[in-house]
Amino acid sequence: PKRIILIRHGESQGNVDQNAYVTTADWRIPITNLGKKQAQEAGKQLREKISEKDAKVVFYFSPYLRTKQTLDEILPYFDDNEILSVLEEPRISEQQIGNFQNVQQVLDAKAERSKFGRFFYRFPSGEAGLDVYSRVSSFIPTLVRDCDQYVREGHDLDNLNLVIVTHGLALRLFLMRWFQFSVHDFEESQNPENCELVTM
Fold first, then answer.
1. Which of 30, 78, 129, 142 is the most buried (most CB within 10 A)?
2. In the UniProt entry, which residues are flagged as the active site (predicted)?
3. 149-193 pLDDT tens trace
4. In this structure, are residues 118 and 176 in contact, taking their beta carbons and an 8 Å threshold?
C-alpha cells in the first residue's frame, strides 16, 4: 500500500479515571468530550495526509467502544467512494487486564508490570504483552491478503491507504513486529498520544 497509518483512540474515561476499569467492562469504556475533539482533529489530519486524487482507504478498528467512537469521528472526513472497507478486527484490541474487583488491584498490577516489564508481564486472568504481540502478528498476513484482494478487484496499491484505529500497546507491538524491533526496543518505547497519527 501507499501508506499504513496507525491511530491510537481518543482520550477515554479510563485514561482520566482508573475507576472506570472496575465499574465498566474495558471494551465498553467510551471516549471523553476531549477524546471526541481529538478524533475530529485526527480526521482532519488524516484527510490532509490522504489527499491524492485517486486515493482509496481501508479502515481497520478494534471492537472496543473507544476505538469505534474514534473512528465514527474520522469517517465523515472521507467520501463513500474513497472508502473500500471498514473492518472490525479483534486482534488489534487492547491487552486484556483480567477481571479486577477494585481499583487498587488494577493499580497494583500496573505497578508490578512496570517493574517486571510490559512485554512479558501477565496480568492475573489476563494477557502478557507477548500475547498481544502474537495477535497483531497474525493480523499482518490478513493485511497482505486484503491488499491482494483489492488488486484482484482492480485497485492500484499505489493509491491504497490502510488506517488502523487501535490502542497504545497494540500499536507499539504492531510496530515492533513490522519493523522487527527487539524486546528492549519495545520496553524503551512509549505509547503515542491519544489520536496521534503514526505513519509507516
1. 129
2. 9, 94
3. 999 999 999 999 999 999 999 999 999 999 999 999 999 999 999
4. no
> Catalytic amino acids?
9, 94
Q: Which structural domains are found in the chain, ordered by start?
A: 3-199 (3.40.50.1240)
How far apart, in whole angstroms, are the C-alpha atoms of residue 112 and residue 44?
39
Put the strands of the sheet holding 3-8 in their side by side order.
83-88, 56-61, 160-166, 3-8, 197-199
Q: Give the three-state DSSP class for 54.
A: coil
Which among 93, 104, 100, 105 is positioned nearest to 125, based on CA atoms? 100
Binding residues: 8-15, 66
Tell me the pTM: 0.94
Cell 472521507 sits on residue: 78
Binding-site annotation: residue ranges for substrate:
8-15, 66
How many residues in total does the chain contain? 200
Q: Measured on CA atoms in the order 56, 60, 66, 72, is the torsion positive or negative?
A: positive
